[in-house]
Design goal:
globular; GMP Synthetase, Chain A, domain 3; alpha/beta; 34% helix; 27 strands; eight-stranded mixed sheet; five-stranded parallel sheet; 22% strand; Rossmann fold; single chain
Amino acid sequence: MQNVPPIAPRTLNRMLDVCCQTFATRPAMAMAFATPLSYGALYERIVQASDLLLELGVKKGDRVAILAENSPEWVTVYFAAVRLGAVAVPMLPDFLDTDVHHILRETSARLLFTTGRQLAKVEDFSAPSLKKIIILDSPPQPASSAAVDAFADLLAQRPRLEPRAKSKIQRAAQRVDENDTAAFIYTSGTSGHSKAVMLSHANLVTNALSAASLAPLTPEWTFLSLLPLSHTFAFTINCLLPLLHGCRVVHAGQPPTPTVLERICRKERPTAICLVPMVLEKIYKKRILAAVTGSRLLRLSLRLPGISATVWRRMGRRLLDFLGGEIRLIAIGGAALNHEVEKFLDRAAVPYAVGYGLTEASPVISGGPVNDPTIAIGSAGKPVPGVAVKIVSPAADTGIGEIHARGENIMQGYYRNPGATRAVLDTEGWLATGDLGYLDRANNLFITGRSKNVIVLSHGENIYPEAVEDKINALPQVVESLVRENNGRLEALIYLDYDLIDRDTAGQSPPQKHHYIKTLLTELRQTVNRELPPFAHIALFTERQEPFTKTATHKIKRFLYTATSGNGRTNLLP
């Protein structure tokens, strides 16, 4: 841990006080290409917003909802709410209006902070508990039917805070205990209806302190914030972690396509970037693998032992230059990283750390540290400090069992759902993650899949679909895949890279393109099966002509594509 001030008591309020005082003059955060707020200015804005919330009637235990894209205003509102002991309810920007309405009603949210892009989701919504809707970006359009106020206007209309008012807010902040609930996190999940995870102040602060072991951060670092802060992985790594170290945070403000990413990185030159595997895999296939495939000289160089290491490092330098040239940490989490992509990162000497966690664990369970030579490729790193991991009911031959975790980062439970809480959290504080994996002799944690996703065919062997999908997704023609059971056989649904196919079939008629794709799927299936044991061979490669529906961290929502009947067999959904 580097340059981390002592945080006691372990509340977000104490963390904010200490860090903003320690790094008061340093740049804190801004949108990309904008002038950043200093830590001192951010602190003053949060206190001012807390005073506004007090005037609007917010008190300890009230719920304050946030449905908005990342911005300094998002961070301001979150910390202003928890400063008073209220519970923040951040919602993913891609939630449907029905999800938003359900959450607002279930939590009895008193205020909703949103943006112009999200406003249509709540224009026709009303509930007795909801007193006001406040928009965080531009003033509302006159045509809008929703009665909303602009956050900037409400702050501008307020008188300058007197010492007495500041003292009142500070007293409210000091009354907040580290075991008080700080947030309800509604996960979009991969297995059905989401539940509200209750995270305390101590859950979040202790996990941020644990995550500080991932890399030797200093105040000079710049974090590029791409993932929605309403997801705990992004909030912990892209907000709390840099806050602890006095780093600068840059919010991208738009989806991270390769073109957008390159333009922002060229200007902001981030030191750390948090990526989900899908973004990194797309960059690898389009920028790195395409260059290797298109150059006979490059392919030859990579086969020569005395030259290949230098070539790999040059290719790694190309990736780092694409990301601005100053990267010291690529934090990868939210879903499994493709094995071929990770082998490239390792060979190319790219500073990366793969992490694993769940919202229920605030979220980091394991990861990195970066540049640790004992971290095994294909693993999710080592359990972070303060988090214990054990494997329950491991198989005698493989050591694979269910991963359980315990620590001060583990959630308080699911909101208004004691049955679901008891199902995953035992009396000794161990969280049953539902994930399968094993620990090696160096304490590296390997994730093999979700327990509910394991396929058992008639021969009795366990098939871990995620492991098979990893091999399929490594193929350059494949964007993503899903393996499922189909009448006692394995079937892979394949979403192909149609840009690549259009290039390879330029000038062909539709029937010719159809024949090309059919032949390609057969060839890809044969290629993958050569890398699998006979019992795991895939019988069908079925083309899927549109992307799979995914969570915020780009995990496929598997339950939409498979359903299990009472007899344990899998029924295929239309």
